[in-house]
Write a structure and sequence with these properties.
Layout: E1 27-31, E2 34-37, E3 42-45, H1 48-51, H2 60-73, H3 85-97, E4 104-108, H4 111-128, E5 136-140, H5 149-154, H6 158-161, E6 171-174, H7 179-189, E7 193-198, H8 214-225, E8 228-232, H9 246-250, E9 256-259, E10 271-275, H10 277-284, H11 301-316, H12 319-339, E11 345-349, E12 352-356, H13 362-370, E13 373-374, E14 376-378, E15 381-384, H14 392-409
Parallel strand pairs: 3-13, 5-6, 5-7, 7-8, 8-9
Antiparallel strand pairs: 1-2, 2-3, 4-10, 9-10, 11-12, 12-15, 14-15
Helix pairs in contact: 2-11, 3-11, 7-8, 12-14
The structure holds pyridoxal-5'-phosphate (PLP).
The site of pyridoxal-5'-phosphate (PLP) has 16 residues, from helix 4.
Length: 412
């Protein structure tokens, strides 16, 4: 008789609850792109943890900045009437690097919280314009926007929306890259559309850069129909696409933009929404209007200190530009794999890429991890989204790892 291991109290996110704790990999240390688990095994991190660790692991500079900040006051709320120097500094640094240098920043902790804030703000703006029927949010197939109720309803990944009972009905899905379908939905429902939410490059849904003209058309349709454009920059932000934000990479400016992950490289949880000056004007025009929104940890001092230190490192080490170098190296490697018939194709930008294997990639990802190469499988895509400090040799290790596995798994 096999004795089943009793379940550990720790319930893992996006995991099978019945899976035994001993079957998980316990990462205990890291430096740069290298990680070690509690069994002494070495890994290369091709996913920047969960798409977030821009500056690499083991950055004591950020840890020290957080510790020094917390030693001063712990953290204190910035709900009215309080404010904080470090939260102000982080908001300034983030806004200045975005297309909305004169905009404003509302902080949260998770990407999902930022998405909820952006969804609520877009509806709020329409309500305050005297347009109470403008409540529909347009989402895209393959979109990932987190797992709060708002984030779940915004997702274009159907399995993630199922099993929770009714979600907000005011969401309409448009096919991922179909400009005409988007125009048709606006034609039919334009007077009820509050906002469109879109990642500049869809990430978790398989790494899909926008097709030519897609984001520009989205912007134009929003303007024509008085809808707000929300870019969810939770993955794209902070250098990932080769500019500070995806909005800059593609030259399309949204009204609201969410960020998280790379804002602190994950050393502390921090997210937020950057709003344009025009949206801010609408919130500011009535000086008796109270914005009834915010999270206990909005502007948490430790998180804001991590963001400031992280942004300083990204700037000092030229990591935004380095994302473009990573893109060139990955392209070189993937092009060779394609030329040898080892992958079907590839797609991506900056430092976020997917190799199209032409077959389900989940097993590949497990096998790559077993070889110490952490990547992510989604549908037929094997995804690479490494720390922006990954070396050319480390990129080559991933490319060779894919080639090796292909030869072993499915000789062609
Ligand atoms: C584009 C995007 N939005 C939102 C989220 C949700 O972020 P969080 O898991 O921090 O709530 C994610 C997470 O991967 C994401 O990729």
């Amino acid at each position: 008789m096999t004795i089943k291991e009793p379940h550990h109290p720790l319930l893992h996110p996006f995991a099978i609850p019945a899976k035994a704790e001993s079957d998980f990999i316990n990462i205990v240390s890291g430096a740069g792109t290298t990680l070690h688990d509690d069994q002494g095994r070495r890994y290369l991190d091709g996913m920047a943890s969960l798409w977030y660790c821009q500056v690499g692991h083991g950055r004591t500079e950020i840890v020290d900045a957080v510790a020094n900040q917390l030693k001063q006051t712990g953290s204190y709320s910035i709900f009215d009437p309080f404010t904080s120097t470090i939260a102000r500094r982080a908001a300034e640094m983030i806004a200045e690097r975005s297309p909305h240098a004169d905009g404003r920043v509302m902080f949260g902790c998770s990407g999902s919280e930022a998405v909820d804030t952006a969804l609520k703000f877009s509806r709020l703006i329409q309500q305050r314009r005297g347009l109470p029927d403008k409540q529909i949010i347009i989402r895209r197939t393959d979109a990932y926007h987190g797992t709060t109720f708002g984030g779940t309803a915004s997702q274009g990944l159907a399995p993630n929306r199922e099993g929770w009972g009714d979600l907000d009905p005011n969401f309409i899905e448009i096919p991922q890259s179909d400009i005409e379908a988007m125009a048709t939905v606006f034609g039919a429902h334009g007077d009820r559309i509050a906002a469109v939410i879109s990642e500049p490059v869809q990430g978790a849904g398989g790494v899909w850069p926008p097709v030519e003209g897609y984001l520009e058309n989205m912007r134009r349709l929003c303007d024509q129909h008085g809808a707000l454009l929300i870019f969810d920059e939770v993955i794209c932000g902070f250098g990932r696409t080769g500019s500070w934000f995806g909005a800059q990479t593609y030259g399309v400016t949204p009204d609201l933009m969410t960020f998280a992950k790379g804002a602190t490289s994950g050393y502390q949880p921090l997210s937020g929404v950057i709003i344009s000056r025009a949206v801010a004007d609408e919130l500011e025009e009535d000086d008796s209007f109270l914005l009834r929104h915010g999270y206990t940890y909005s502007g948490h001092a430790g998180s804001c200190a991590a963001a400031v230190a992280n942004i300083e490192i990204i700037e000092r080490e030229g990591l935004v530009e380095r994302a473009n170098h990573i893109g060139r190296e990955v392209t070189k490697g993937f092009e060779a794999l394609k030329g040898d018939g080892l992958i079907e194709g590839y797609r991506g930008v900056g430092a976020v890429w997917a190799a199209d294997l032409g077959e389900p990639a989940a097993e590949w990802s497990r096998k790559m991890t077993a070889r110490g190469l952490i990547s992510r499988g989604f549908d037929d895509a094997l995804i690479l989204c490494p720390p922006l400090v990954i070396s050319d040799d480390e990129i080559a290790e991933f490319v060779e790892g894919i080639a090796d596995l292909r030869r072993q798994m499915a000789p062609r």
